[in-house]
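Internal ticket - ligand job 574, flavin-adenine dinucleotide:
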Amino acid sequence: MNIKHDILIIGAGLAGLRAAVECLGQADVAVVSKVFPTRSHSGAAQGGITAALGNEEEDRWEWHLFDTVKGSDYLGDQDAIEIMVRDAPRVIYELEHMGVPFSRTPEGKIAQRNFGGHTRDYGKRPVKRACHAADRTGRVVLDTLYDQCLRHQVKFYSEHYVLSLAFDRKRCAGVVAYDLPTGEIRFLQAKSVLLATGGCGRIYKTTSNGFASTGDGMSLVYQAGFPLEDMEFIQFHPTGLYPLGILVSEAARGEGGLLRNRLGERFMERYAPTVKDLAARDVVSRAILTEIREKRGIAGKDYVHLDLTHLGEEKIEERLWEIASFARIYLGIDPVYEPIPVQPTCHYIMGGIPTDVDGRVLVDEKGSLVQGLYAAGECACVSVHGANRLGCNSLLDLLVFGRRSGLAMKRDLSREEYPVFSEGSLRNADSRISELLSRQDREKSGSIRKEMQAVMMRYGSAFRKDEGLKKGIEEIRSLKERYGEVRVSDHGKAFNYELVEAIELGHQLELSEVILLSALQRRESRGAHWREDFPQRADRYYLKHSLAFPTPKGPEIRYKPVKITKFQPEARVY
Ligand SMILES: Cc1cc2nc3c(=O)[nH]c(=O)nc-3n(C[C@H](O)[C@H](O)[C@H](O)COP(=O)(O)OP(=O)(O)OC[C@H]3O[C@@H](n4cnc5c(N)ncnc54)[C@H](O)[C@@H]3O)c2cc1C
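stdout (structure tokens):
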């Protein structure tokens, strides 16, 4: 069956839905999502959204700009960051008008809290910048935007899995999707396609990400022959619940929570003397891992304590209810009385599909575009987070650049005719599925996935070195070979999740190789990318974005310059 829409948005997280809202009433918009829309990972965001509103204390967008540039270890593009931080207050008031129930100050203004790396006076001391709805911010914003879409009759293809992008010569012509409830394969034709497919944290064993964060969109673009940017930069969040990796939001430290080692020391005082527990995430994660390596983990194990006991029951129940309930449910620990065991957990990818500031996908280092294809949100790289993202800057990124992509798609529509319906892509997808289902091989995707996650933890997490990265690449390549023999034992049509998981695994293996190879070639330490064999930042050689191009021999890495407008690189101390 052939379906046609002006604009097709892949992904119903905040980036996708914000783009859809922008097009309401002016274009025929449809949203495709492999999970039920409100189950997108955006709904798990607890902490908040940053904006220099100055509701609790003086704040300025210039400070937000400086913090984000410094947080990015000077790799973020400053023109894009400036667009984002200047637009932030408007984003918050707009959400308020749509009905988002933000937490309030006693005078009734939108409440704000501290988050790591956000400061006033260019790094002098922490500032309250994150607007929040208790610790359920992502949930309420996602529900509000979904509600806006339903009210305006946006068409949702829920539980539809996008298998491939289709092209009419060099122009994106739509997608081929697998309808999970029926097992039918469909071509969805569009003038413009926006990828808003989220992150890929599930490549790692310990992660805060939901099951759907498998990096499909990034991999689809790479498989279509286009490059991926800055893929070596993977964020490990300092506080995952030990040993599960489920997130304990930075809001816990924003509200006054403290990290302590085996000796009860507030060790962050040694690593970040000015802002201590509220330093940027890469700094805090490395500090925790160093404490553990130097045998100051709790009871000789791989975790430290996050202590909230001094905050008191009332504050914990009012502002950190969900975080406290996670500790109670998953570990049987009550944070009112006992510290929470935490360890760094894979959280976010700073890199992704290269785009301009209006979401248009870029295909080389010269800035050439691919017609009809856009990307926004965690799967995209504008780049506003550079080598390390600051807390609560992601939701802001999704809302600012989701909206800008929507605006650009609307603007570009008038010039566009419908591209040609692509019988070929439909046939390819169909035969690929039949081939997967008819295999008699022995490999199971579950065991390959487990090995991949262990390889990525061992060689591609917070500390990296040449020898390990090379070994990791070798092991991922041999897993890719074994993947060629994966067998799907469920041959049913409806809700064949085994089939979907096998396809997702192919994307994850592709991205693992890109991540490790990009990391191998960056012989310096910057932000979240820490090379034990090259512990200094080397601006002379590596103040540039990596671009990984697909070739038959694997990824080929080229580079493009960083856009610097206001702040020249300086030593990064907190
Ligand atoms: C636990 C947690 C807490 C966080 N807290 C915060 C916070 O407080 N503040 C902050 O700024 N950031 C936070 N982040 C980061 C932020 O939430 C994410 O970066 C963001 O939600 C990503 O949004 P997105 O719109 O790009 O994609 P997602 O919300 O991940 O949605 C992806 C969408 O793509 C769809 N999709 C993917 N592949 C396919 C396919 N093949 N076919 C069809 N559909 C597909 C999915 O169905 C889904 O709808 C947090 C992240 C986590 C994991």
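Auto-summary: Residues 497-521 form the longest helix (25 residues). The two ends are 57 Å apart (CA to CA).
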